[in-house]
Specification:
Elements (H helix, E strand, L loop, with lengths): L10 H24 L6 H4 L18 H18 L1 H6 L1 H28 L7
C-alpha cells in the first residue's frame, strides 16, 4: 500500500542538493577569478597519458596501456567485494569465510598470472 508522504519530509534532501550545487559552482567560479593565468607554449600543448605529442594524433596507443588499465579496473572491482563481506562477516560464519578464501585465492592466481605474463610492466 502506498502512503502519501508530505513534501515537507523532503526539505532536507532539497537543502542538501542546493548546498552541494552552490558549493560546486561556487568553487569553480571562485577559482576562475582567483587563479593565475600563465599561458605559455608548453602549457597549451597537447598532453595525454605521459606520451609526448610528437606525431600524428591518430597513431594507436600501445596495447600494454589498455591491458594495464583493464587489470586495474578488474582488480579494483574485486577488492571492492571485500568491504561488504567484512561488514556481514559475523552473520555469514564459516561458510562465508571459506567462500572468501576461495575468492582471494582466485584473485591471487589471476594476479600472479598477470605478473608472470608481464601485464603489470609499464615499459
Amino acid at each position: 500500500m502506498l502512503t502519501n508522504t508530505p513534501p515537507i519530509n523532503y526539505i532536507p534532501v532539497f537543502i542538501f542538493i542546493v548546498v552541494s550545487l552552490i558549493f560546486g559552482v561556487g568553487t569553480l567560479v571562485l577559482s576562475y577569478f582567483v587563479q593565475t593565468r600563465i599561458d605559455d607554449k608548453e602549457k597549451l600543448s597537447t598532453y595525454e597519458c605521459g606520451s609526448e605529442p610528437i606525431s600524428d594524433a591518430r597513431n594507436p596507443f600501445p596495447a600494454r596501456y589498455y591491458i594495464i588499465a583493464m587489470l586495474f579496473v578488474i582488480f579494483d572491482v574485486e577488492v571492492a567485494f571485500l568491504y561488504p563481506w567484512a561488514v556481514v562477516f559475523d552473520q555469514i560464519g564459516l561458510f562465508g569465510l571459506l567462500e572468501m578464501i576461495i575468492f582471494i585465492a582466485l584473485f591471487l592466481v589471476a594476479y600472479v598470472y598477470a605478473w608472470k605474463k608481464g601485464g603489470l610492466e609499464w615499459d
